[in-house]
Please model this.
Amino acid sequence: MGISAKIEKFMEESSWIRKMFEEGLRMKEELGAENVADFTLGNPVMEPPKAFQDKLLEAVTKPEPGMHRYMPNAGYEFCRDAVSRYYQNETDLPVDAKHVVMTVGAAGALNVILKSILDPGDEVVIFSPYFVEYMFYVDNHGGKVVVVDTNDDFSINVSRVEAAITDKTKAVLINSPNNPTGVVYGEYTLKSLCGVLKRKQEELGKTIFLINDDPYRKIVFDGNKSSSILPLYENSIVATSHSKDLAVPGERIGHIAVNPNCADVEKLMPALIFCNRTLGFVNAPALMQRVVASLQEESVDITDYQNKRDFLYEKLSEMGYSMVKPEGAFYIFPKSPSEDELEFVNYLKDKGVLVVPGRGFGAPGHFRISYCIPMEVIERSLAGFSDAAREFGM
Ligand SMILES: Cc1ncc(COP(=O)(O)O)c(C=O)c1O
Model:
């Protein structure tokens, strides 16, 4: 066998989202797309905002000399400057262009951060249910994941975090607004978490980074806002992208923003820039940096997601499904009516409705619905959900 045994094992165990997505493609071919409701991927069907299209057109039709060349590995200064102004407004912190690195999406940002901070065997605390890629990203850089269960409502259990931190802990990685639950951590929770981290740093005499994987930051409902970790904790880092807020995941544009008061910031920033280069990204896509620089305050129409959240939450609740009402992102994570959620997911699949089993996120007994799909598909799926509810005695 030519490939790594570890990678072979990872591939077998881990990709429920892909498995269900591929199943969906097969079913669409066999039954016709109009007979399948595919809730598997977080791949928004929404088009990017008009401002994005306008900026893209401008960048292409008014080319500037050298715009396709290599650039400093951190990204264009004008773009990092624009991003830093976003954080200045959001936090009142003196975030500067030098605290920002443009990256190949949030996935690239996370890999760059982990590469920069982890030594072999260092631990990264994550929360279940989790975005499964964290397992692989941490492993990519020799780290070890420590999974902490959330409360029943998917909020962070701060005492469990306290118990999980050891002298090997290098970072705590949160994701708010959250995939797969749609939960948004409030300021009170974040402050309590930061309180524990400050205490633990002192007790252990070391730096523990708090990282927020933040690609859904603008997708928050009911007029609320997602709280930033930057003003709450000095050793904080944000990894994010425009994959979701501008609906451009294929364009691979994101960034890292570091708290200007972070420990060793003068060494951390060059380390991030070095890792952006040596992980093979070299720099974030040049054209996209030109486009997003002036779109830091833009986002897709959040009310569209909120309407879909309201519709699904109401209809599924009426059928008897139990779930935490999402406050952001575009996922719902209901309890499976069967303890073995795979049995339920397979039943639903036979009704033409594809969701992802909770075990794909370290939370068996649940299933994930990704509702960034057309409303008519969501409406069409209700018969399948209702049938499954009856079948499983709800
Ligand atoms: C929680 C979370 N983090 C990171 C990513 C990766 O985002 P990007 O496309 O910006 O790399 C995703 C994508 O779905 C996600 O859901």
Remarks:
- The chain has 13 helices and twelve strands.
- Residues 212 and 374 are 29 Å apart (CA to CA).
